Structures are given as C-alpha cells and as structure tokens.
Amino acid sequence: MTGMNPQRKSDLLSDHVKHEIEDWLRRYPENQRQSALLGALRAVQHEHGYLSTELMDAVAEYIGVPEIAVYEVASFYSMFELEPVGRHTIAICTNISCMLRGSDRIVDHLERKLGIRLGESTPDGKFYLKREEECLAACCGAPMMQVDHVYHEHLTPEKVDEILDGLE
Amino acid sequence: MSQDLVNIEINGVTLTARKGAMVIEAADAAGIRIPRFCYHKKLSIAANCRMCLVEVEKAPKALPACATPVSEGMKVFTRSPKALAAQKGTMEFLLINHPLDCPICDQGGECELQDVAMGYGNDVSRYVEAKRVVPDPDLGPFIATEMTRCIHCTRCVRFGEEIAGLREMGATGRGENVRIGTYVEKTVASELSGNVIDLCPVGALTARPSRYTARPWELIQHAGIAPHDCVGSNIYLHTRNGRVMRVVPRDNESVNETWISDRDRFSYAGLDADDRLLRPQVRDGEQWQDLDWDQALTRTAEALKRYAPDDIGVLVSPTATLEELYLAQKLARGLGVANIDHRLRQNDFEDDAAAPLFPWLGCAIEDLERQDAVLLVGSDIRREQPLLAHRLRKAVLRGGVVMAVNPRDFGFHFPLAEQVVTDPYGMLKTLGGMLRAALDVEVKPAPSALIGVLADCESQPLHAEMVERLRAREHALILLGPSAFAHPQFTILRALASALAQMTGAAFGYLPEAGNSAGAWLAGAVPHRVPAGRAVERRGLDARAMLAQPRKAYLLIGVEPVFDCADPAQAIRALAQAECVIALTPFAGETLREQAHVLLPVAAFAETSGTFVNLEGRWQGFKGAGRAPGEARPGWKVLRVLGNLLDLPGFEHVSSEQVRDELKGQLSDDIRFDNAVVPKRDLHMPPAPSGLTRVATVPMYAGDMLQRRVPAFEAAAGAVYAAAYVNASEAERQGLAGCEQVFVRQGEATAELPLVIDPSVPDACVWIPAGLEQTRTLGANGATVELQKTV
Ligand code: SF4
Ligand code: FES
Ligand code: FES
C-alpha cells in the first residue's frame, strides 16, 4: 500500500516491443487501437516465450483496452501460450493428411524420446510439445511438424532425431 | 402511414413496427412471446444463443428474431413446424453441457432456461456423453458463481461494457473451452454489478447474500423505494414471513430504468444486525433497563417538557421518511423548539435564507442523458448516485462532455473533458477563475456580493476553456455534490456556481447525498423554514450550531452522530455534556448507547410506510413490506403518540398518508423549482490555508445506519479502508516517506491511522474518509490536520 511512485503496468514492455506495437498501431485508424492486439501479443510472446497476466495487463494498458479484452484474444488463439513453456516449440500436425501419413508414429516417437506428453515441456525447459489444433497447410509434405516456426516435412523418426539434435 | 413504420404479420396478426426494429421487439410489443436468452432490451444485440429462431416467409432457413429487422410485408411465424423444430434443436444443444441441477440451483423457479426448456424443448434428453465442468471464479461478496450452468449468452459481459462502463467479465478460451469470467481472480468493481444477477438467464450468477435462503415461490413481492441515494430507485422487496429476503429492481424508465445499485440491492442485509433495538430502553447508570412503550413514551414526554425549548436540539436523518421528518418538526415547533435540522454533514449554513425550496437536480433525471456539457463540483457521482453516473455516461457516449472540480480524483467510468483536483480552497479559486473568465467573455460586471471573492481569484487559460465548453450549449448543467455541501465555505462555492451558471446559460442543480434530502426541506426539517419552504418567525440553530453550542437535551431521529455528523469530535463533546439524549432508532450501536439516555426502537427501511422525495421532486410512496422486529414501531407513529402525550394539537393522524397529505396541502400547486441563489451580503475569500487540509468524504457504504451494518459491504470492491491518504510528493514534504502508520491530530481530536500513498489526493491535502469506525473521533471536512510519524 505504501511505497512511492507507483509503476505503470506497461513499464514491463521493452522498447523493442513498444516500437513494434507502435508499428502495428500505425496501420489502423486511431479509434481502432484494439486491432493492434494480435501483433502486440505476438511481439511480447516472441520476447518472453509466453504471455503472463502481467504482460497481458501491460499490453492492455499500452494499447488502452480493458485487460479482459486482452485475455479473451490471447486465450482464443492457440498460437499464444499462457503458461511458461520450453524454449523450442515443437508442433506436430495431426490433422487428416498427416494422420493418414503416420503422424501418430511421430507423436509417439517424440513423446517417448522427450519423456513428456503433448502439451507438456521437458523438465530442463528445452522442449515444448505443443498440441497443434489446425492443419498447418503443408499436407503435400505430410507428416510434418513445425519447430520454432520452421517447417519440416516428410518426417521419419530418424529425421526427427536429427532435427532435434541440431537444436541447442 | 408514417414513413417510419412498416407493416408486418406475425402468426397471421397484422402489426405495424418501427422501421429498423427487430422482429423480437415488434413481437414483444404485440405480446407475442418468442423465446430468447441473449437478447435484452437494454443491451446490444449479440444473436449468439439462437433461441429466438423463427420462420420468415421466403427465407430458406429459420432466422434469429433478435437480429432480423422488420421489413414491409414481412410474414413471420413463431410457432410453425419449421420454427418449432429450430427452437427445439437449439434448446437441445443448449442443454448438452448444462448440468440440469435445478433442485440445488438458486435460480430454480425463476429460471429462463427452465421456463424455455419447458415451453420449447424436448421432455427427454438424448445426450449421454460427458458434460463439461467449469471452475467457479470468485467475483466478490455479491455474486455467487456456478459457471457450469452458463449458456454463454454474454449478457453479463455486455452489461459490463455497455452499462457498468467497466469491462470486467469476458469470454475466454474457444469452442468447447469458452468460459465466462474475469480470467484472473478479482472482485468485480462496478457499483452496479448486482444487475448481472437479474440479467443472467440461468443460475450461473446468483445473489450471494440471499443464496440458499428462499425459493422464489415462497416470496411475496412488495413495491418499494430504495433509500440510499437521492435517486429513489424503484425496487421490489421480496419477503417471507415478514422478513426481507432480497431486493430486486422495479422498472421505471424515468428513474432507474431497469437497474439498481449494489448498495440499494443488498442493504436489506443490515436489517438483521446484532445491534437491532428490540424494545424501549432507558439508561440506569451503566445499565440499560427495558421499558414498555407506555412507560417509555411517558418518560420521553416528561423529559421533553422538563427543558426550555431553546435547550433542546432535534437532529433528524435525511434518510427518514417525509412523514417522520414532517412530524418531527411539527412536534419540535409545537413545543416551541426551533432547533431542528437534517443537514448533518453540512459545515457552512450562512446563506440558508437564499437556499432554494429544496436542492433540486435542475432537470429531470432522464434529461441528464441529453446534456451537452456538465460541470460537477464536489461530486463522486459514480459512488454517490451510481444511476445518475450511468445517465451521465450515456451523455458522454453521445458526445457530451463532463468536467469536474473535486477535492480528490474520485475516478469516473467515463472520460472527463477536464478535471481540476484541488484542496477546498482551490475549489473556490477554480470556480472564481471560471466566473471571471465567463464575465470577461460576456463583458459583464461581477455580481456585487462576489466582487470581494473575485478580487482574490484569477482566470487561467484552463478556466476559460472550461467556461467555453459550458457556454451557449443547449443543455449545460452545473451540479453541486456532497463534497460541495460539506465544503467549509459552501456559501461562497454555491454563490460562485450559481453566478457561473447564470453567466454561461447553464442550468444549476444539486446532487444531495441522502435518500430524502429533498423531502426534508419540503417537510420543514430545517431551522429557518417551516413546511413548504415558508420562513420561520424565529430561526433556530442549524445542525452544526446545535453541537457547537451544546444543548441540554437532544432528540435524535435515525442518527448516529459520530458517523452522521459533519464534525464527530464536536458531536461527541456536545452529547457527552447533554443531560438527556433521546434516540428514535432502529439500531443501537455502542456509540449511540454511550451517548443516549432513552432508546426508542423504530422501524427501519422496508418496515414502515412513507414517502421519499427524490432530487427531481418526485414523490414516491411505499408501504411497509417487512415486519419490524421486537417492539419496534414506525417512526411516524411514535412521533404522533408523543405529540398526543405532550397535548400538542394536530397529531390525530391514523395513517402515514394523512401525514403526507397534510404536508401536501401546505405546498402551493405551482411550485417553482429554482436553484439560483443570490447572496444576501458581500462575500470574501477565507484566508489561504496553511498546512494540510483534511478532505473527509463519506465512502459509498458508510452513508447511513443501515449501510454501515451490511456484512457483504465490508468485502465489496467499493469499500474504503480507513487510513490517511496523501500523494507521494506530499508525503515527502511532510517527512513521511516510507512511513506506514501516522498519528493524526485535528484540533483536539486524534487518531492513529495507516498512511497510504494515493496519487488521487491533491497536494496539501490528506484524505481521511469520514463515517468509518476508525475515523469517528476526528473533526470536519476542510479543517487543518497534522500528521506525525508514530514511534
Ligand atoms: S454467466 Fe449468465 S449472463 Fe453471463 S454469459 Fe453465462 S449465462 Fe449469460
Ligand atoms: S494435415 Fe498436416 S499439414 Fe495439413
Ligand atoms: S435471443 Fe436471438 S440469438 Fe439469442
């Protein structure tokens, strides 16, 4: 209760993130500031790995929308993480084409290899097995996965091992 | 046929409807029932529940009646096989995840889902799969949650955004995982939050204080008027066996629309407080002795006769009914007592003679929505009159501007165009500066009584801007709120505001703090006027003077002096010296017991019939709904019998209506409401303050006896914590940086309070809320205080 100079919530955002948000804000009319929300959240997640409540509140204050409006958007899109996750995000597509081409085997292999289930992160904080909800639009290369935004296609367990070993 | 109307047909009945209206509105107006969940006449259209599907000729599929505008020649069928099939299908989907736990649900018996399922659903469920379960957020002391029952209509979400002006609830997640809640645990902060309980069509949001206490079919509904602010919201009281079980709003578009404040909704819970006075009592040394009414009233009458009229002071609560106020002054004046007042929190009474008939809003409540510019002076309208704040918010959303001159940044749920936050002295300077700016543009001389004041004020660019916003608007209004009434130089403040209104062409009005302030003036519960505003022959002492010059005897009606009076320290001194203090009161708390000699139990709000006059001058009568406990009797009856025992003429009333009509008969038919004041003598600025000035506002839930006894209010988001609040730089200047506890000295009064750094408090001020247990020893608003580090 006491304590001087109450901080503003948006002080949590780095200059880089603020810069990026400004960039998004410029693309929309001044009375539609909430339009910059998706871009802003992506920038924040990129920097912090996930969206904590404090970070979402910071974005709310910076853009000037109610906090709950940010929670709504962040919790709607599966690309946003609301809990801390491993450094490398592995998303295996399990939609129809990939499933027909054996994505189950890939999931199984990765779960066994990393010792975690879909939706979990390894205890050392290195890997996160994301539960992917949508077709990732690379059906012609099925089965496929996305590691930190990079697509890897025509997967086999050996190829998966190779990709993972290449990550630090 | 006007161009704005179209002809449609619903179920073969020809109707006309407003162009642009939705089918559901036309059907509602014609009494044709269409099931719905998400549609609500006061909220935006979401069309997300699909319950209102109807068949429209030529449309291939059923259409939602709430989102389908009428068009010329449209034919709608609400009960055709296609419509019924669509409704049945929607109902089946809505019930898939609903727990069907009606037997343990508080909404049972008054649930829209139950009713609509009965009317439009299947009687047997085909769904055998697992249902989802949703955790329940804690939304605070007013709203109980059971979110598994939620059908995602989003009425509560839209209410927050559109009506409360605080978007606190939302729909997070998606698809199967959508949840309605706040995402983070928090007590909802809107002072209108309880309305979501009525809006929620299912049992997801129910009233926490009354949960599991009654079934709707056991309750009897009584129309009533809410007592806690000058709006006079229309309510229904629901009673069982004479006990008030809950309060809900009663529609009245001109007053409260379909909403009520949380304060008016939940205050009934205070009726059962432990210190409810059940029988008459007299003090016998340190002991209290029970008496029967005959003895008690005889003793009271004898006591009143024992003192010379001038030795008696009568303080009446402005939340008393019109009838109580009227009889109180009649009794007092019958005895020759001129000292009667209800303005317990006012500090400056100098311009009494210039005061209007009653503190009037200056327009109708509905007209607040149409204001182009409003200047609030000393008003925390969001907490003091939540439903008027809602009207102002609508004005702002329509493009109006609101400005404020306040002793603290109270926080508003609409943007302010300008705000000056300053100490009470600075408030005078600000209005003075504005008046000078207005005189400059109008090229008018200053009103003669104010020349002295204006000499000490200068017009700054901000003042000129504010004046510009008020000037020459079709609807502009200057309003004085409770912090203006409690201002140490109310006379000057009011004279400046009135002159400013006149110069800018704005209307001038008041936001009195209590439920029946207007009624108290009309009833003559003031020392300088008899009923109907006529001047008295011999002026009595006002509320402050009665305590500053202690009387030998006091009659307190519904008053707890240490919480209700402007200067509690002074009240404590005066009452301690008094030989006889008689209190007519529903409650007898510790402090009242310390001060009183005779306690007479009277009925509280909801237990007596009477009338409240709201700030528009609207007389709203009500009947007793609940039964007063023990031997408590309606206040007007007690006063009437006292009148008889004292052999005073004109105390023959057999009903409260007769009392009201007696007063009404004295008011002329063509009452003119006019708030303009012209000071009767030349005014001068007070000396500039040195040191810290106390800002003593009364928090939202501390305004009267009943509110102060509601357990749920203590945990409410709007509850105020007793402390000394200063801003960071002031704390630095006072050498209090980092200090957690301070010693407060106000004149001879002292208190020890936590120190809170609060940027809403202006420089040179300390905000110490009044009306609270921990601050009840201190003095008045606007006085000098010292803060010291505690060791
Ligand atoms: S809690 Fe009630 S009002 Fe809110 S969305 Fe759910 S059903 Fe509708
Ligand atoms: S189904 Fe896997 S990429 Fe489309
Ligand atoms: S009432 Fe029409 S869709 Fe909900």
Give a verbal description of the structure:
The complex is a heterodimer of chains A (168) and B (791). With 168 residues, chain A is of the alpha+beta class. In chain A, 42% of the residues lie in helices and 9% in strands. In chain A, helix 1 (15-26) packs antiparallel against helix 2 (37-48). The radius of gyration of chain A is 19 Å and the shape is elongated. Chain B is an alpha/beta fold. In chain B, 27% of the residues lie in helices and 19% in strands. Chain B contains 24 helices and 32 strands. A seven-stranded mixed sheet of chain B has the order 14-13-24-23-22-15-16. A six-stranded mixed sheet of chain B has the order 28-30-29-32-27-31. In chain B, strand 15 (312-316), helix 8 and strand 16 form a beta-alpha-beta unit. In chain B, helix 8 packs parallel to helix 21, helix 11 (424-442) packs across helix 13 and helix 11 (424-442) runs parallel beside helix 15 (490-504). The termini of chain B are far apart. Chains A and B meet through helix 4 of A and strand 7, helix 24 and strand 30 of B. Bound molecules: iron/sulfur cluster and FE2/S2 (inorganic) cluster (2 copies). One FE2/S2 (inorganic) cluster binds next to helix 5 of chain A. The site of iron/sulfur cluster has 14 residues of chain B, from helix 4.
Task: For this entry, give a set of tags.
heterodimer; A: 168 residues; alpha+beta; 7 helices; elongated; B: 791 residues; alpha/beta; 7-stranded mixed sheet; 27% helix; 19% strand; binds iron/sulfur cluster; binds FE2/S2 (inorganic) cluster
